Amino acid sequence: MAVYKAFSFSFFFFSFSIFLLLGNVHCNPNYRDALAKSLLFFQGQRSGRLPQYQKLTWRSNSGLSDGRLANVDLSGGYYDAGDNVKFNFPMAYTTTMLSWATIEYGRRMGPQIQEARAAIRWATDYLLKCATATPGRLYVGVGDPNVDHKCWERPEDMDTVRTVYWVSPDKPGSDVAGETAAALAAASVVFRRVDPTYSKILLRTAQKVFQFALQYQGAYSSSLGSAVCPFYCSYSGYKDELLWGAAWLFRATNAMYYYKLVKTLGADDQPDIFSWDNKYAGAHVLLSRRALLNHDENFEQYKQEAENFMCKILPNSPSSSTQYTQGGLMYKLPESNLQYVTSITFLLTTYSKYMSATRHTFNCGNLLVTPRDNPLKMSYMVGYGPYFPKRIHHRGSSLPSLLAHPQTIGCDGGFQPFFHSMNPNPNILVGAVVGGPNQNDGFPDDREDYSHSEPATYINGAIVGSLAYFAGAH
């Protein structure tokens, strides 16, 4: 059994994964450029009244009356992907990951730290509204997805019903509430020094939302049904979000209350995936920080669970349960596979960072990582490199902007001639990372093929930290 410095093999493996994602068309990838673009993407997903500093000028104000059906203001936040719905479950996860990236790698971001904070705040301002607008309710989404997904129209032209969804004591949603608490708690750490007042508001609200998640336990999928399923069902249940939320509140407060909760929740599943739905591995890596950096033996369990996860991911590990394409790209699931690549490799590089600080090593069998190739030589980040997806599954990108086409495009108006067209999208959603190639490394660049060509906030939310890591290293 060989012993390897995990920093070395995780660093190499991760850099190779990002090399493939960015197209390996450059011998020396410009990580600073990729980082800037990955953050710029979030401007294209904004809902609400856009600020004067908006750089993606093909977007305009939208969803200004969101929340009106419940007599509350729920404007703002992000559209989750290529549609015009605000799903708070993946949005909150995106916010947590952006915050974690900024906490770990903010010093490596250079001038992009301001953009990262702006991207986080655009989400947290909205999440605060959702958590405080009505006592006893946590608003968790705006827009009927079953109606919205039948349309192909710009967010600026939305004429579909903007149904408001919430969870409450009689309609619990511990998963979405736990993730919202995690997002607000993580963001409170980001803003602790630069805006202490805002940080305190975030933390206070996170604590209240988490208490709600804990007191009224249940899955939001059961409470809301077709409003969230099959789009963002909580397939893994809600125990992982309770662990995740408690872990982030412990990180933000260092309070024994949350430490005891972490230890008593009993959420010790050890999957081989990390995503907007399944947070176990993320919680284990986050908690392992105490074992590695603080030498706290009370957290040894989480260090072991984090390392078990790594061994399930890394190629050629005896306990690996992860497939790779011929080109060498991690392959987890057919739909939007790059979301798992970005999320999992964030954990790899962050754990590597913790390990390098303490010269820690661990056994993972006789591991050998060998470089391979990206057969198409394509970047899967829009606007990065010479070859990138041109026909992404995204309404705002694929339809002419209000400046170019002031006339309203109704619900059905966007399908012909735009959605079914073979022409490139008129608006470049710079920095968007799409679902990625299939298991044979194929990518048709077809906007009708949403499982491969649709970008999403939670894909980009997970890649920001890792790009920042490498941007700061070059």
Give the SSE layout.
Layout: E1 3-4, H1 6-21, H2 31-44, E2 86-87, H3 88-105, H4 112-132, E3 138-142, H5 145-148, E4 164-167, H6 174-190, H7 196-215, H8 220-224, H9 239-253, H10 256-264, H11 280-293, H12 300-313, E5 323-324, E6 330-331, H13 338-358, E7 362-363, H14 395-398, H15 415-419, H16 450-453, H17 457-473
Antiparallel strand pairs: 1-7, 2-3, 3-4, 5-6
Helix pairs in contact: 1-13, 2-4, 2-17, 3-4, 3-6, 3-17, 4-6, 6-7, 6-9, 7-9, 9-10, 9-11, 11-12, 11-13, 13-17
Family: Belongs to the glycosyl hydrolase 9 (cellulase E) family.
Keywords: Carbohydrate metabolism, Cellulose degradation, Glycosidase, Hydrolase, Polysaccharide degradation, Signal
Signal peptide: 1-27
Q: How does this structure look, described?
A:
The longest helix is centred in the first third of the chain and has 21 residues, at 112-132. Helices cover 46% and strands 4% of the residues. By secondary structure, it is mostly helical. The strands form 3 sheets. A 3-stranded antiparallel sheet has the order 2-3-4. The chain has a two-stranded antiparallel ribbon with strand order 1-7. It is globular. It has 17 helices and 7 strands. Residues 1-11 have low confidence and may be disordered. The protein has a single domain (3-473), classed as Glycosyltransferase (Alpha/alpha barrel).
